[in-house]
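Dear colleagues,

I hope this message finds you well. In preparation for our joint manuscript, I am sending the Glycoside hydrolase family protein (Bifidobacterium mongoliense DSM 21395) sequence together with its predicted structure, so that both groups work from identical material. I would be grateful if you could confirm receipt.
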Amino acid sequence: MRKRKRFYGLMALLTAVMMLVAGTAYADVGFDAASYQGCYNAHAAVNAGARFSFIKLSEGTGYTNPYAGCQLTASRNAGLRLGAYHFADVAGLSPQAEADNFLNVARSQGLINAGVIPVLDWEPAGNLKANVAWAKTWLDTVAAAWGTKPLIYMSASTIHIADWTPVSSSDYGLWVAGYPKGYAGDRLRDPGSVPYSVSPWGFAAAWQYSSSGSVAGVGSAVDVDWFYGDAVTWAKYANAPIDTVTKPAVETPTTTVKPVQTTTTPTGDANALATAVIQGLYGNQPQREKLLGSRYAEVMAIVNQRLSGGASTASGYYVVRSGDYLSKVWPNNWRTIASLNGLRSPYTIYAGQRLKTSGTSGRSYVVRSGETLGSIARRLGVSQSSIRGYRSGNPNLIYPGEILNY
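The corresponding structure tokens are as follows:
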């Protein structure tokens, strides 16, 4: 566990509350990396579902990750949201000196004020873990230079060995690490809510739920993380315009939408705006309605049609949702779907894209409230194992409006 990360902020708290009220959760999965991963294939990671990467820049006062440059470049080119972290040495070193090392590396890579979330990886040895004042000084130093509040990463057990109120009350967010499954193999997935107490923080901005994740293009023993927010939330943590964090991680539709930065009513094609909404670029309510202005009803009608199985999901087609990738929706025949749609490596798809599914069974079903996969199988007169496309990857977890294939 020598390379990890985190996030937070008042606006993120408000976003989290709004998500709960709306009943719609926006969250993303990603990974973090250090020199162990070397130069990786970020496009493969994106195709496997990754939406962000946190990369180690420095440690102590003299160490720089020799692979940071190629990791950052690969992640940028693939459209991953970026975070950068410093591993605290602490022993005999001043927090200001370690912060300077981190900031110097960050400046050399063009990361400051560029939509990147800074992080302090807090894993010092022994009793040094309880040195809250040291951590707070590092965080304050970086915040002043970066113009945003860094996150602090620590294990769930470390939270309770000291009083972290000076850090939490200063609005430095928490990225907590804890592995309920131990060190068994894991993957990019939705792990749900953090199962640990994170007091004095009101909530964790992110959870590193395993250090044994298999991430395509990166490795088979990778730290995997769940971020409780979307692109808009990320931009708030980074204190940066959203267009600095939302380079699409997938193919861009023919008609594109400039990422949201102001409250000016957007212009352009309504279908393209609907795609941007599905991708999370317009955030959650009430922010979404404010940003869309007079276009709100028009655009949301298209969004709701796509997400509820309207005309755009006629038999023989599937409308791609945010977070989808081919092998997730069609685990057994994704290459057939790729061929039907003329997709070639790296097999990128985008939210709102309409993919042909004829050539498989060409049949689809829209999940209704209260249904289970078993009840749907009985309704359709098919075996449960023949139903595909549930985005959670868990047959016991399906969502109203989700489009299943059989």
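For the figure legend, we might mention the following. The chain has 14 helices and 14 strands. The CA atoms of residues 317 and 356 lie 4 Å apart.

With kind regards,
E.M.
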